[in-house]
Design goal:
By secondary structure, the chain is an alpha/beta fold. The protein contains twelve helices and five strands.
């Protein structure tokens, strides 16, 4: 298959990625155009053994990272959105790993190929991005979890990123009381709680009075992924990997998504 045909479906996504790195669409498009020109001049730079999208991003970042300073075109405006401004404050390589995995949807293995680093390096880079994001948006976290060891583990993970755990609730009632004392900036919630109550109901009650990003961490994802209503923005299935929690916490705060579940039927344990 000709290179032009292989990469054509992926160019809009590459433009999105380039914009995230450069800060403006004009600057990002300039780098995408430069990448395409390089491929026309030297097609051997495109690794045909790879998935075309992976190969395209790899070529793009090879060009991007070969430049000492990535300058915006003359007259280009600075970052135009809150997300652009946050991205600009993350150091370059962690920023690339974060956007590749969190925005572009590449796996850690694919991101490692694109960045030409070992897979374990991607985890380290994403964790670094998470800490830098936390430095920008450090917040209070409420954990709704009835298993003490899991609650302790989650507390250690989010505090390691620079956030503060202000409450750990084991039941719906405890969660409501914790919110009454201090509204959190992020909620990590299980569904089935110690007394048979529902973490989902507790979240619904919170969202009735204020908005907050929510991450559901549950062994019962089928109780959320019904297809009947808009799904939660963030869902982690138990047993979880700490690196997954770190990445999703960073995404939730970075993109400020909320779980809007108020119309979903109540879940009972």
């Amino acid at each position: 298959m000709p290179i032009s045909k292989a990469i054509a479906p992926h160019i809009p996504y590459l433009r999105r990625f380039a914009r995230a790195l450069a800060g403006t669409q004009a600057a990002g498009d300039a780098y995408v155009a430069a990448t395409l020109e390089v491929l026309i001049e030297d097609p051997s730079l495109f690794d045909m053994s790879l998935d075309p999208r992976v190969a395209l991003y790899r070529t793009f970042l090879s060009l991007w990272n070969s430049l000492d300073v990535n300058l915006k075109p003359d007259g280009a405006a600075g970052p135009s959105t809150a997300i652009d401004r946050k991205l600009e404050q993350i150091t370059p390589l962690p920023r690339q790993a974060f956007v590749l995995t969190s925005v572009e949807g590449f796996t850690s293995q694919e991101a490692a190929v694109i960045l030409n680093v070992a897979p374990e390096k991607i985890e380290s880079l994403v964790e670094t991005a998470g800490r830098e994001i936390a430095a920008q948006v450090a917040t209070d976290v409420l954990i709704i979890e009835d298993e003490p060891m899991i609650a302790i583990d989650l507390e250690s993970i989010v505090e390691g990123l620079g956030h503060r755990v202000t409450g750990v609730a084991r039941t719906h009632t405890e969660a409501v009381k914790a919110v009454a004392k201090a509204k959190p900036g992020l909620v990590l919630a299980d569904i089935q709680l110690a007394d048979g109550s529902s973490g989902l109901d507790a979240v619904n009650e919170m969202l009735g009075s204020f908005e907050v990003p929510v991450i559901f961490i549950t062994a019962y994802p089928d109780r959320l992924l019904t297809g009947e209503r808009p799904e939660p923005a963030f869902l982690i299935t138990k047993p979880y990997q700490p690196d997954t929690v770190k990445a999703i916490v960073s995404q939730a705060l970075f993109f400020e998504r909320r779980a809007h579940l108020r119309d979903r039927p109540s879940v009972t344990a």
